[in-house]
Design a protein that fits this description.
- The chain is 44% helix and 5% strand.
- By secondary structure, the chain is mainly alpha-helical.
- The chain has a three-stranded antiparallel sheet with strand order 1-2-3.
- A hairpin with a 4-residue loop joins strand 1 and strand 2.
- Helix 1 crosses helix 4.
- The relative contact order is 0.09.
- The C terminus is likely disordered.
């Protein structure tokens, strides 16, 4: 009879399905795809007979002396740099870019080090000091020079081809956001209103395009002093959190409360319930959040979706959601000190000084940048401030409106249904002020 080993949970019980192991290697699907592409490229390089010393061999057949041969990596880099991205891949038919070439070479060096470093061979240990960025050994100096020359080769290649457009996304500024949102408002469908709200929130967060989809209502809180809602955005690259303000805007085309109200009135406050997590933008939640947000940007541009053709706008060539972060960074750089701006963008300055390790993001430090991203003039340089305040519906008491009786009217207008809406947005909930500010904004 076969027996199956059982896993004993930690003391106190298991909180989730146990992982096989948490390793030091990258585990994201995108990183795994890069690793696979790099290995396939190297096998193709070996089969090409580009480097006679390894002609006819496979990666598995390479001996230690091959992996300790600097020319192997140089010839691999040169072979990749002279080729184009294969069909079916992003950028198919285009030359490999600097980052990709260096990444493939790095994958190869890491794989070789995993096989031969620390196995009692001084020559191998010396060779793989090239991976130590602070080392001054001959191989470390060689490897830094190789990476520098890969970048130089790509630059010169693109310069001759007249293709020095840069690798970054073209920025999308506040005026671009306004035009996108206005087009969606004119369309006015539930889908259009949800998309407009997501674009404004992504712009105000100044984060990576994929991150806004992971903001959940449990991290959202109403700050009674700043009189705005703050949420917490998970940052994928550093695996850290940053707060950001969801602000009243200078006009309805950059105002979160107007957009959230439009979305609620057309879609409701229903939020995705996945493992008891309620996401603020459920339409963007998932592994392809960045691609979805880019689709929101492109679909309402000329040549986009047919159903938005009557409201289509013209932006620069190939706009993408990544441009929202680029545009926000550009504006913040000119409007607030870097000590403030990095709290909006989530960039780390810990390498500059240990001081920045203690200076955590707070509502106050986020506020100066939030003011600018909401369409208002910047504060005097270096001065902290409060965020723009949305209108208060309590002003209606001056004309005799009963605010207690107004709650159900707000729920009716904004489609707040207790059966499908997270409790925080219902009467008596945590950040209940946002629905009331949404209603006041439209009144």
């Amino acid at each position: 009879m076969e027996t199956t080993a059982t896993t004993t949970p930690p003391p106190g019980g298991a909180a989730a399905a146990p992982a096989k192991a948490i390793t030091a290697k990258g585990a994201s699907k995108s990183w795994e795809a890069v690793q696979t592409a790099g290995r396939k490229a190297f096998e193709a390089f070996l089969a090409s007979n580009h480097y006679p010393k390894v002609a006819g061999l496979t990666a598995a057949a390479l001996r230690k002396e091959h992996w300790l041969d600097a020319e192997l990596y140089e010839h691999f880099a040169g072979w990749i740099a002279g080729g184009v991205v294969p069909p079916g891949r992003k950028g198919a038919g285009e030359p490999y870019q600097n980052g990709t070439i260096k990444g493939y070479v790095q994958i190869l060096v890491n794989a070789a080090a995993a096989m031969h470093k620390g196995r009692g061979d001084p020559a191998a240990d010396l060779f793989f000091t090239c991976l130590d960025v602070k080392a001054s050994t001959p191989t470390a100096i060689w490897y830094r020079g190789l990476r520098k020359n890969i970048k130089r080769f790509c630059f010169e290649r693109d310069k001759k081809a007249g293709d020095l457009g840069g690798e970054g996304a073209e920025p999308l500024y506040l005026e671009d956001v306004r035009r996108l949102v206005r087009a969606y408002y004119i369309k006015g469908t539930p889908e259009a209103c949800a998309r407009a709200c997501a674009i404004i929130a992504a712009h105000q967060s100044a984060g990576r395009s994929s991150e806004i989809g992971y903001v959940d209502t449990d991290t959202a809180s109403w700050d009674s002093y700043f009189r705005t809602m703050y949420a917490v955005q998970p940052m994928s690259k550093p695996s850290e959190l940053k707060p950001f303000a969801l602000c009243a805007g200078a006009d309805r085309y950059c105002c979160f409360y107007a957009a959230f109200g439009y979305r609620a009135a057309r879609v409701g406050f229903q939020v995705l319930d996945e493992d008891d997590t309620h996401y603020l933008f459920p339409d963007l939640h998932g592994s392809s959040a960045g691609a979805k947000l880019t689709k929101y940007v492109k679909d309402v541009c000329e040549g986009g979706l047919q159903r938005y053709s009557e409201v289509a706008i013209e932006l620069h060539d190939n706009p993408s959601a990544a441009g929202l972060r680029v545009g926000a960074c550009n504006v913040l750089a000119t409007a607030v000190p870097a000590e403030f701006a990095t709290h909006n963008t989530g960039h780390s300055r810990n390498s500059e000084s240990a001081y920045f390790e203690y200076l955590r993001s707070s509502h106050a430090l986020v506020a100066p940048g939030a003011v600018v991203l909401a369409g208002f003039p910047p504060q005097p340089w270096g001065r902290l401030c409060v965020t723009p305040k949305p209108p208060k519906i309590s002003a209606l008491t001056a004309i005799g409106v009963d605010l207690v009786g107004l709650g159900p009217l707000v729920d009716c207008t904004l489609l707040v249904d207790k059966a499908t809406t997270h409790e925080d947005f219902c009467i008596g909930g945590g950040p209940r002020p946002p629905p009331r500010r949404d209603e006041a904004r439209h009144v």
